[in-house]
Amino acid sequence: MGRDAVVRVLSYNVRSLRDDPAAVARVVRACAPDLVLVQEAPRFFRWRKPLGRLAAAAGLVVLAGGAPAAGPALLCSLRATVESTRDELLPLTPGLHRRGLSTAVVRFGAVRLGVLSYHLSLRKDERYAQGAMLLERLAAMGVEHAVAGGDVNERPKGRTFRRLAGELQDGWAVRPWGGEYTSTPPDPHQRIDAIFATPGVEVLGCGVPAPGTADPAVPPFTGDDLLRATDHLPVLAALRVPGARS
Fold first, then answer.
1. Which Pfam family is one of those matched by this entry (predicted)?
2. Contact at 8 Å (CB) between 124 and 98?
3. Closest CA to 19 of 232, 187, 234
């Protein structure tokens, strides 16, 4: 019989690290994540350096994404063993930003987990089509259990959000933990960022983390860090993922 694994997953729109990268790093490190699903990672000239500096400052490594995925990226701790990665550009609508998905399959001991970072369109029809592509990509990863996190650009009552929550578990709705609203840090009033998990994953808790730290050996982040870091609040989920059963 395989052994389950508890995995900490953080989703965070960092606005290309244009605000306060040090504050972003403090927030990420204090949350002690195993996986970080980044949106709006640096993706233009010399984009690898700032993304690499963020990972190093947070005690993580860059797994995938950035420019090849048009913004979504994946970071991971050394606890994760990487099986594969794939960055995918979504169809371009003239006049709108290019969107993409950053994906990987990782292992935590006997546990295999698909991981996907997304940032959906601001336009309703394109966003809905991208939601369908997200679900198709998850299904094509060849794993029983997966997690997807990112910026939906839509509230839970929206058509695309409801479609994703209809096929996947919406972490906050299943087991709220911490704050609900992710936009904007000075006045949180809407939930437009979410972590979704496939049905076999147990959501232990999901929400916006409160200032503090998950590891007493790591300096805590503050409310001021959340205000300075970027224009979104992060979403943190603790997931129990079943291992392979013999």
1. Exo_endo_phos
2. no
3. 232
Q: Could you give the CA distance from residue 207 to residue 194 in angstroms, rounded to a whole number?
A: 8
Nearest residue to 172 via CA among 9, 4, 1: 9
Describe the crossing of helices 124-139 and 159-167 by its angle, rounded to 10 degrees.
Answer: 10
159 is written with which tokens? 């058509």
- Report the candidate in 62, 27, 69 with the shortest Cα–Cα distance to residue 235: 27
Q: ∠ CA 154-116-63 to the nearest 5 degrees?
A: 130
CATH architecture, range 5-241: 4-Layer Sandwich (3.60)
The confidence score (pLDDT) of residue 1 equals: 47
Which parts of the chain have pLDDT scores under 70?
A: 1-2, 245-246
* Domain layout of the chain by residue ranges: 5-241
